[in-house]
Design goal:
Elements (H helix, E strand, L loop, with lengths): L7 H20 L5 H15 L13 H16 L4 H7 L3 H24 L4 H7 L5 H10 L4 H27 L20 H20 L5 H15 L9 H16 L7 H33 L3 H8 L4 H11 L3 H28 L1
Length: about 350
């Protein structure tokens, strides 16, 4: 039976550490500071085994999941008739994912095999998406679940850290300012009716998308309903900047606590392999961006971000802060995750048969 008890004092302390790290990183101009700062502060605390005031850092998954719909609602606010017209030209890059995902998977598999992993561990660790499904199916197929989990989380975290730094180096501008992520419609004051509509979009969107088995339902559902509400004129505003900043802190904190209990030897070994895999896949994503930018009418930055194998929620936040087509980026990540999960299911059946 699942233990649903929460140590609220430890949770409050964990969020305080994450918030302090986020504010400090933002003050120093770190890209996407609230997210990366909280991830770093809590991640170091968890990895070092520190117990501030005698309590270990903790973050219930359901709390993190409760904030993710905020991102979908915010992205839906960027949907306009112009975006709908542009979407008609996204077909080539969506089809390109059918090539990108297996090639990225093969690159990761080669890196992990050369690094000494057996076939099962390498196969599921190299999947460029679907973290939860990869770990679950990999465990059923006989993979080392601890190593697999660490490698998959490092894929997410290294991508989340690398992408804002890459954009900072190329453009000279931080991703996500101290004022928070800049959103279309953020300057519109919300009235109680708007707040109610956005809450319904978030809650009902998750429920309907889950009922319909839509991939990444926790973001896609709220996104679809929010886009519909904005197009129909039911609401103009989007979640305020402070809520987006809080969402970044919760997401970063949730990633950071995953390092609790990981041995130094496992972390060092997985770290080297994850960096090599990340460099290979990010280079591949950039190559696809160069090839597709003119075909789909999107800048290299948008296509690169759409193919970078990070977390859906985190990549969407970066897209919002860059003020590029967040809907374009999110759509591609949903398809990427769906393809990766399909590959995980095929691999699980194949390894179980053998």
């Amino acid at each position: 039976m699942v233990n649903l008890r929460v140590d609220y004092a430890a949770l409050a302390l964990t969020l305080a550490i994450g918030a302090a790290g986020g504010m400090l990183a933002t003050a120093f101009g770190l890209p996407l500071g609230y997210l990366l700062g909280s991830l770093l502060a809590v991640g170091v605390t968890a990895a070092m085994g520190w117990r501030p005031f005698g309590r270990a850092v903790t973050m219930p998954m359901r709390l993190r999941m409760a904030f993710v719909p905020v991102i979908g609602v915010a992205i839906g606010g960027a949907f306009t008739p112009q975006v709908a017209r542009e979407a008609l030209g996204w077909g080539p890059s969506l089809l390109a994912l059918l090539v990108f995902v297996p090639v990225a998977h093969a690159l990761g598999y080669a890196v992990f095999r050369r690094g000494g992993l057996d076939r099962v561990d390498a196969y599921f660790s190299a999947l460029p998406g679907g973290l939860i499904e990869s770990v679950q199916l990999g465990e059923e197929a006989g993979a080392d679940v601890r190593l697999l989990t660490v490698l998959q989380f490092l894929r997410l975290i290294l991508t989340i850290v690398a992408v804002p730094l890459i954009f900072l180096g190329v453009t000279g501008h931080s991703v996500g300012s101290a004022a928070g992520v800049q959103l279309t419609g953020a300057d519109v004051a919300l009235i109680p009716r708007d707040v109610l509509v956005l809450l319904v979009c978030g809650g009902m969107g998750v429920w309907l998308a889950r009922l319909c088995r839509i991939p990444a339902y926790i973001i896609t559902g709220p996104l679809i309903l929010s886009a519909l509400a904005h197009v129909l004129g039911w609401v103009e505003g989007v979640p305020p900047g402070w809520l987006i900043a809080l969402t970044q802190v919760v997401l970063g904190t949730g990633l950071g606590v995953r390092f609790a209990g990981v041995s130094g030897a496992t972390l060092r070994r997985a770290g080297v392999l994850a960096v090599l895999n990340g460099a290979a896949v990010m280079t591949l994503a950039y190559a696809f961006a160069l090839l597709l930018q003119d075909v789909v009418g999107q800048p290299v930055s948008a296509v690169f971000l759409a193919f970078a194998p990070g977390g859906l929620a985190e990549m969407s936040l970066i897209a919002l802060s860059l003020n590029i087509s967040a809907i374009y980026v999110t759509t591609h990540h949903v398809v990427r995750i769906a393809l990766a999960v399909f590959a995980a299911q095929i691999g699980a059946r194949w390894f179980l048969k053998r």
